[in-house]
């Protein structure tokens, strides 16, 4: 479908596309009835603003509900309070029970002392207030991105602010997983395109044959590579972010980090690349058989032009969606892989937070993920419109075809 | 694709799966908690390691010995650098040690498979540690729960007592723990001194409560019938419903298998067991958080840990068996017999005057605790610390490497001087470091200990203290208190009454910022149970802090001030979290007094005492200088940071970190203002000890230190903190070159002198004949000196398995003791096979060693 009004909108929104070939006559040709039927009282801008506003409100409500559900779930509907009370008592029991320091206290004094210690800890963790009240306070803080303070966790540098706890682990996770995903993405796309052009070739059969190896998760390859390249051959370190002590120079540090990244990156890469190539190759093959591609070929266009304009273009929204969601998926890192490689990333952080019921960190990270997801989905709508000529905003129910 | 290629790929995939399966298992192992061992075995194994090391030493060429002698001039730590890194997996750590990537793993590993792996590796050695133990905690409420109306058989003491007969502790030790545990029957640990002191009583009770399932069944059947329960088709019923036992089973370690084992035994006896598998966080709200009368559990697989050698375990009964232990619902449900209650309290309060009186009381309480059995003790676990075989280091018998105060003073590559050693630990730097209420994470504490010196050093094998920065000490104890001494650096005397001088400091006036004296608060005088006088050597200013500042009396006095000031509401740095600690301290504190400034002599008065004079010596040697404390105090007073997490959370400010994070910039600001003003904290008092010039020097030194290192962690230990890489989880410690002690000062503390004991004597003894047995005691092939042995006790169990005789062996010469059974003794023995069991309690280690010999008596 081609939408002339959308084209004009795209030109308004996206200057880089001005003069591009998106109105190329070779695009699927259909008469633009929508432009004729659209009520004239609503300008394009109004429709875009209205649509954007509604989408934002819907997303905000979705995030609000999602965050509150997270708060309830992370706190087990308030049961975490009981767990924490139990934990406090257990810790106090262990620390004071057999200590010689308390031997000279009378039973009453000891009891008062323990009660005081317990009360202090309960107050510190806010357990002296009902959970329902605190849950709404958590919600308000979360929605305004005031992530607050952790009760039992500190950031690597010692800060108790949830924001710092998360942000200090973010670079390591981003570095590892974005490197891996970018490699996967670009290698996947190019190899898949190559294979779609050389369908049935020996390489194609080999890669398709290797696709089932992606059934094994990245940590599986991680363990395998550690055994092989660290323990047996000693080529790469077992894990960690950098050698100990970390090199003094920036270059030395960077090289050391790269050295430590090799095994985990390869593990992630191997765990996904063959299946990824297989999927994208199949995807490209399907689009290669569309009628309009045959028509383009029949018109005598070169393979390169056909591939770029008639195969890649319509597949881009799907690819971009996958990439965007994968990138925000990096937010949670990978618990097992990071643990195996002792990588100081978000995955291990969230695992620890979950284990010790540090709900502030769990909620904080979920809030950020929810916002990231919401914003990504919102912008993907626009990106679709930019990339896919079949998409239009407003004018017809649903706003999207 | 050809068939060959498919085959190749299939083989590759299978190989990969196998590798991963092995690796996965290892990774899980690392997360499993501590494990245990048979005591005698453990001792033997430790001895083997020690013996191997001894052999290696003997084989060392003379040239190396000469070289070692030349090295003895070195001061401070043996190594130049220690790198601490994080390695969560014990299995991975062992592999990395084998590859020489790391040199030691500061974690008490308890996994039997890893233990076996380490034993098989020539490149590694290990040391054992004790202090973790498992038990069954019973809910004593009932016999009918208010909450559910259901029967609780464990409300009946006899049924609980019968559980001692039901469980096979040897099976648990050997099969469930794979040999990394030893049976435990009572509330005292068999690696600590009280066990050796009471060995004859304990062994008798252990024999009495040995595994006897038939006896257990008999008692339980009898008591269940008395409760009104009926056996229907092999299942106990109460009021027409099966008797259900809710068993909270912890899942993180061997307690899961213990739970299953005990549950099966109970099911065999006719109980319907609900196996409620729980993690720690899931279980604690139930067992420690609910009212026992609600009936949410009947049994819980409990576990406890002691990270330091406890030389007095007499308080365990009051804690574990009476409602005085803790003010939590489970403890409040404890209803020991009046006799047990009174005696355990008496023991806890040390209401006795001689050790003999204590022993009798202890013996009675041990027996009564078995009859009460709200806890049935199962095993003492054994952990081990692994390190490369070319590494030598002191490890604590209770706390392992991470619990050893001596580790930075003894760590070295055997026979070498200098170099770098890398120590891995399961986790590090989870919380901020500050000198008041910073991290208490056990692995961070280990590193912190390397940066701070101490007045007296805990012996890693006995728990007693040795002087480090103390010249000598005098301890005066009130007449009638059972205190004894072992080492000659402490002079122990007794006095009818100990008066506290009226000029001794007793409290702190946070408004006037001055000490309040005994004379102010107690014009009629004040007495104390104990007085310790510590004599510090020479001039304190000869010692320096890491930033080059000389130590001064002000450092000592500031530590006294902050003990009070942070817990005083009127103070600018008041912290509610410090109040309970101060209250506790003041409950026994009776004053301190600086009797002399050069050399420094400090008197300390208290009502709190321990059985050992060495542990009653009050140590005021500071580990933090006043000027770095002052920076933190300024930040705290300004409300920018807080020393404690409690105050930080309450005020929503950062928990103070001296080594990294957002605190650093804030502290730097206060350093600048302090340096500009020439700030002297608590000037009303410390002004007497700090001159303006000294203050300027201190601030200048700290400014230079911060500019160079980027942190505020200044200590006086054998290592200084070069840098803490918080995200990378690495800490770099460098040796202090001008440390005042020779590196060899603590030599000999790397291997515990656990005695090796053998008993020899006739295999056949005629009844009525006098007989002599020889007890050979040595360590690493050398005779154990008589002076290093506390006592050698013997027990004779007759042919019926009853304890027939007890007594003490007599010393003949170093390494040789003798047991003589008189004609009268042998005449009293039943005909048949007897067992002579010998317990040797050395003074150099807290662990007794046992050995036995069987002999036959004939008429």
Write the layout of secondary structure elements.
The complex is a heterodimer of chains A (401) and B (859).
Chain A: H1 4-13, H2 33-37, H3 44-74, H4 79-97, H5 107-124, H6 131-143, H7 162-197, H8 202-210, H9 218-232, H10 250-288, H11 291-298, H12 303-329, H13 335-340, H14 346-355, H15 359-387
Helix pairs in contact in A: 3-6, 3-15, 4-5, 7-10, 7-15, 9-10, 10-12, 11-12, 12-15
Chain B: H1 3-31, H2 39-59, H3 62-71, E1 81-86, H4 90-98, E2 104-105, H5 112-120, E3 124-138, H6 157-166, H7 169-176, E4 181-183, H8 193-197, H9 199-208, H10 213-226, E5 230-232, E6 235-238, E7 241-242, E8 244-250, H11 255-268, E9 272-278, H12 280-287, E10 299-305, H13 316-321, H14 329-332, H15 338-348, H16 355-372, E11 375-388, E12 391-392, H17 407-410, E13 412-413, E14 420-425, H18 442-451, E15 456-458, E16 465-467, E17 472-478, E18 490-495, E19 498-500, E20 505-509, E21 514-517, H19 518-521, E22 526-528, E23 530-535, H20 553-565, H21 579-586, E24 589-597, E25 600-606, H22 626-637, E26 641-642, H23 645-651, E27 654-655, H24 662-677, H25 683-686, H26 692-709, E28 719-725, E29 730-735, E30 756-760, E31 764-766, E32 771-779, E33 782-783, E34 789-797, E35 803-808, E36 810-813, E37 816-821, H27 823-827, E38 832-842, E39 849-858
Parallel strand pairs in B: 1-14, 2-14, 8-9, 8-10, 17-18, 26-27, 31-39
Antiparallel strand pairs in B: 1-29, 3-10, 3-11, 4-11, 5-6, 6-7, 12-13, 15-16, 17-23, 19-22, 20-21, 23-25, 24-25, 28-29, 30-32, 32-33, 32-37, 34-35, 34-38, 36-37, 38-39
